[in-house]
Amino acid sequence: MTLIRRLYFSLVVLGALGVSAAAHATIIGSFSGHLVLSVPNELNRNLGVVDGFALNDLFGGSFAIDDSVLPTGTNQFPGALTSLSGAVNGLGFSLSGGNVQQLLAGATEIITFGVGSGSLAGPTVNGFDLSNLTFDLRGSDLYDAINVLPSSLSVADLSYRRVTFTFNNGSTNRYLVGLIDSFTWEGAPSAGIPAPSGLALFLLGTGLLVRIRGRKSK
Q1: Is residue 101 part of a domain?
Q2: What burial class does residue 106 get, using C-beta atoms within 10 Å of its C-beta: 0-12 exposed, 13-18 middle, 19+ buried?
Q3: Which secondary-structure segment (H or E) carries 121?
Q4: How many CA atoms lie within 13 A of 101 on its CB side?
Q5: Is residue 203 part of a domain?
Q6: CA distance 168 to 122
Q7: Is residue 10 classed as helix, strand or coil in its secondary structure?
Q8: Domain range holding 52?
Q9: What are phi and psi of 122, to 5 degrees?
Q10: pLDDT tens profile 143-181
Q11: Exposure b/e, 158-173, CB count within 10 A at least 16 = b
């Protein structure tokens, strides 16, 4: 195989890898806030002081979302929430493989994410296990398109920002609700393989120099 053919083959293989790397990015986020406890119409089913929780107890954590996951027809991104971990009043929880969904209600744009079909590990409180965790974010301008995840969000973009912790004892649900005080959501492009265009120019230039030098040496 000639040198030029070898370089061409390398371009094809590495270029394909570069496309894959450039197309993928991970959204990294963080959150913190305080408990407001009450769920509308469920006042008799909220966890409270008797369970070790109180108004203004703190929660917080971080999450990662894979924005290469394609949406379904309902603008749900299944499994896109690759990881989420944190604590509420010092009790830890973690989630993997959760879902993200974008909705539109009139002029209000909505992003929800939580357990979905993922796996959740968390505390048990008076016989009630943490069984669900849902973030409800709303604002007038959260995303550019309903089927494309935003690349950047902050708490200033959110007119409504709640987290609901659902606990279950096998037959009954009980709840904690938190108000998010601080929130970040930032795209973090993957690093490593150069972008295809830059890589192609580099290899092509190298090949031409090698060939020219080879001809001169002859």
Answers
A1: yes
A2: exposed
A3: strand 119-121
A4: 16
A5: no
A6: 12
A7: helix
A8: 25-189
A9: -165, -170
A10: 999 999 999 999 999 999 999 999 999 998 888 899 999
A11: beebbbebbbeeeeee
The amino acid that residue 126 corresponds to is N
| Phi/psi at 25 (5° precision) | -145, 150
Q: Whole-angstrom Cα distance, residue 105 to residue 7?
A: 53
Closest CA to 31 of 9, 62, 77, 4: 62
Q: Helices 196-217 & 3-23, crossing angle to 10 degrees? A: 170
Nearest to 94 by CA among 66, 122, 68, 75: 122
Q: Which two tokens stand for residue 6?
A: 């070898």
The whole-model pTM stands at 0.74
Instruction: Give the whole-angstrom CA distance, residue 39 versus residue 105.
Output: 21
Q: How many domains does the chain have?
A: 1
One-letter amino acid of 110:
I
Question: What's the pLDDT at 1?
Answer: 52
Cβ proximity of 149 and 143 under 8 Å:
yes
Whether residue 139 lies inside any domain: the answer is yes
pLDDT surpasses 60 at 202: no
CB-based contact 128:166 (threshold 8 Å): no
- Give the burial class of 5: count Cβ atoms within 10 A of its Cβ; 0-12 exposed, 13-18 middle, 19 or more buried: exposed
Within a domain: 6? no
**Element (DSSP H or E) covering residue 77:** strand 76-88
